[in-house]
């Protein structure tokens, strides 16, 4: 799984699930994130130093969308702490709950957890005890989004 988180609202804005962590999977997740946001040009996309994020395919996708790439230093674990925390929660709340008979069942469970639990029910201290969806509604009221 590859996922991108909005550092402001803590919402997972794009993700893709596959058998292996490839450049195509990373590009799919990035395209998913871009589709979820109206205007992304100039945004910074921070990743770890995985080969999929250094690939020509991923770098071309960043350029195509007008995004700026950023990578953590070697051994700087704190750079990716927010995503490591997300993946730990995903493992605890979905992956370790039971044995999954098929990948389709697991994929469905992951998407359901992200969209219902993580975005709409999980209150976060750094957001003033709001969920990511509540925080985005307050920060970006629908009238402002329509203008």
Description:
The protein has 147 residues and is mainly alpha-helical. The chain has one domain (2-141): Ribonuclease H-like superfamily/Ribonuclease H (Nucleotidyltransferase, domain 5, 2-Layer Sandwich). The chain has helices spanning 23-36, 51-54, 56-65, 81-95, 103-120, 132-139, 142-146, and strands at 2-5, 12-16, 44-47, 68-71. The strands form 2 sheets. A two-stranded antiparallel ribbon has the order 1-2. Strands 3-4 form a two-stranded parallel ribbon. The longest helix is centred in the last third of the chain and has 18 residues, at 103-120. The chain is globular and about 35 Å long. The mean pLDDT is 91.
Short characterization:
This protein has about 150 residues and is mainly α. Helix content is about 50%, strand content about 10%.
């Amino acid at each position: 799984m590859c996922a991108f988180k909005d550092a402001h609202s803590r919402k997972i804005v794009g993700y893709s699930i596959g058998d292996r962590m490839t450049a195509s999977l990373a590009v799919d997740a990035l395209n998913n994130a871009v589709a979820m946001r109206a205007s992304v040009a100039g945004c910074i996309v921070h990743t770890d130093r995985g080969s999929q994020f250094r690939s020509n395919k991923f770098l071309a996708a960043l350029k195509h969308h007008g995004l700026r790439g950023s990578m953590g230093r070697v051994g700087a674990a704190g750079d990716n702490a927010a995503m490591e925390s997300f993946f730990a929660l995903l493992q605890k709340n979905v992956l370790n709950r039971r044995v999954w008979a098929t990948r389709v069942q697991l994929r469905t469970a992951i998407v359901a957890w992200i969209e219902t639990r993580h975005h709409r029910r999980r209150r976060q201290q750094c957001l003033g005890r709001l969920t990511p969806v509540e925080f985005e509604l307050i920060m970006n009221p629908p009238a402002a989004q329509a203008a």
